[in-house]
Fold this sequence. Notes:
By secondary structure, this protein is an alpha/beta fold. The chain is built from 28 helices and 24 strands. The strands form seven sheets. The protein has a five-stranded mixed beta barrel, surrounded by four helices.
Amino acid sequence: MEPVPIPEKLPILTINNEVLLPGAPMKLEVASFTNQALMKDVLTKGLKVIGVIPLKDELDVIKKEDVGTVALLVRISSFNYPQDTVIVMTIGLCRFVVQEVLSSTPYPLAQVELHKDVYEEEINENVGKVLENLKDIMLPVIERIGLLPLQYLHHFKDLMDNFPASYIIDVCIHAINASFEEKLKILKLLDLRERIAFGVPLIMKFFGNESDIKTRLYPSRSLPNFPGVSVIKFKSSQGKALQRHLGDSDLEDLEQRLQKANFPEHVSKIINKDLEKLKRLSPYSPDNAVIRNYLEFVVDLPWSVSSKETLDVKAAKVLLDIEHYGMDKLKKRIIEFLAVRQLKTNVKGPILCFIGPPGVGKTSIGRSIAHILNRKFQRISLGGVSNQSDIRGHRRTYIGAMPGRILHAIKAAGTNNPVILLDEIDKLGSGGYNGDPKAALLEVLDPEQNMHFTDHYLNVPFDLSNVTFVATANSARTIPAPLYDRLEVISVDGYTSVEKYHIAVKHLLPKQLDLHGLGPEMLQLTDDAIYKIIHEYTKEAGVRSLERKLAAVCRSVAVKVAESSEDTLPYIINADNIEDILGMAPYYGEEILTIPSHPGVALGLAWTGKGGSLLVVEAKRVPKSSGQKAKLILTGLLGSVMKESAQIAFNWVRSAAYQYGIVKEGNDLLEKSDIHIHFPEGAINKEGPSAGVTIATALMSLFTGLPVASGLAMTGELTLQGLVLPVGGIKEKLMVAHRLGMKKVIIPFKCTKTLADIPSCVLDEIKIITVKTMDEVIETAFEGLASASNHNLLSSKL
Ligand SMILES: Nc1ncnc2c1ncn2[C@@H]1O[C@H](COP(=O)(O)OP(=O)(O)OP(=O)(O)O)[C@@H](O)[C@H]1O
């Protein structure tokens, strides 16, 4: 085998908290920008050696006289999931000293001088003896405590024989896992005698029993002196021996694993071909790492490993109740889904898709399904995935090619029948330059096709028909239509304060106490403290922020418990002292918003993927510019549908103005001044038709000068005829109205049936008024004043 040429100009990889010593193997994770740039060049130019310099601080730069180690690159693997990472397997060859830094971008390049250690025939007999003894002592210890990875241990003795004896001290220091500072000092000591004098005590300290090891190391004299040490030469062929050994041992290991794996027939053929090719390739060929990574991925895939499914519907009910509070409708549907599976095992059931706001337990219900079925669970986040290759992998011809997320998840699960949760399916990006991810996902979800799913990287079909897919989304509106067709959508609603309280007490708090090593004997939260967190510290449909706040309380109390004596326990957190931990309540007094004191203001209810929210509508007359026509001005980051519904509401009011006595016959509202309608929280996108009735009510209030009844909110689409059409998200809207203490809510008549889903505590406290027309809305909003029969009364107010 050819010796490795070591150039005088070396590209430099910098590392922190670690030191690569000559003779020692090391796995380096390359993350920094400059190091990644270097690895790119290594891959494209096929470099075999680089320089590695340890830096104390990430921000340090390399300079003249720095000492580093020439590193032989044994293997490079790259991953882009879950994030871009390159892992490099290296072995230190010899020390070098930087003579000049030639450039620093995109990565440092330095003129170096290789350090020639003293060795061989000229080495003093005493030094040689010490090193030999050290080797004899260290070998069994290294073997016993597993200080080196198994595959290196195997050839450790051979390596020691092949390497210059001067490396023994370096390898031993590496093996005893000395501190960063100690290793750095060893690296910088260019004189072998000094290295031995500094290193041997460290090794003795590691063994603990100093006197014994000292006599074994130095049988003839108490301390060595090192006369006669002179120059030695580094033989690069010695590095080769090391590389060869490492390469072979890995290959043998891989071959054995491939033989043991239970591949389907069509896969075995391809694997054998690749394995033969790998054996023929030089270890320096860039193809070597590519084929090796591929084979390692293939062998790790669970071709024939599956979990044994246990399904007992009765037990499933109990488990669902233990793991989740409430969610009755959802639990019922899951039980039906499971019951069908129990009766007909090979059924290609629907793909359940849980739709609801963040933090309502969609992911954790998916985990429970896996638990019930006794299968492994994996979650794939589809948010922002815009390339087909994310799902289906890259072809192996690309540098840094990777399998797709589906096979990654299968590999991580270790079984071929896990439950895979496709999270945020509504956030799937639309086709990138590399193909549409939707098409790939459709194939994954299609029971007719997914038994032959072909990932581009794997390049042979993998059977996905045993995988149970479950999906989640925040809103059904944005799920691509072809995918929506394959899903059975189940909505998971937000929680009322009472439900949140029970979830906190039964699930979130015990979980957080456990995670922080606390028990109820150390920390107790009173009910009013929990309600205060729910009402004043969080504003959400789910319970994610609530869980975070409870974690913050546990963290803070954990510190106090650690510092205090037992007689001060338990810490009782109540509504008064919670501010000491969580700071001022951010949503304190939010209900004040719900009192529209000025004419021209009305309160609507909106619904987004994040849950329900209050929508304030403000209308005002403003002087028009002279000589210009009066106009309608709309502001508040509105989508096109919302702009249109504002136009409809305005024109309805315009046409009904005479009937309501707002203008005299033949006059128009838009004659004298501009009308400005604004939707506060102007930085938040607003879209949809459901604000129609609210806008019309705000305008009626403006033109009549009558404030809208207090504690009233509304939702409904308005037509030009003045009809009120049904809208979505009624449950979420009523929940937010309840949270904010609203007394009355107007909803379209056609939404009456959705009231069956609303918790009784909400219906008990809010009066629901169902309407078919805008006239009925006005009747309620102005408490009877605004009906046509009050024509004259209104006219007199103008
Ligand atoms: N009904 C419930 N009973 C017990 N715990 C719950 C319930 N609902 C939510 N949780 C807990 O709330 C936390 C957040 O839930 P999870 O992560 O499943 O929300 P999600 O709906 O998947 O949110 P996202 O859409 O943001 O992914 C988890 O710790 C979960 O266990």
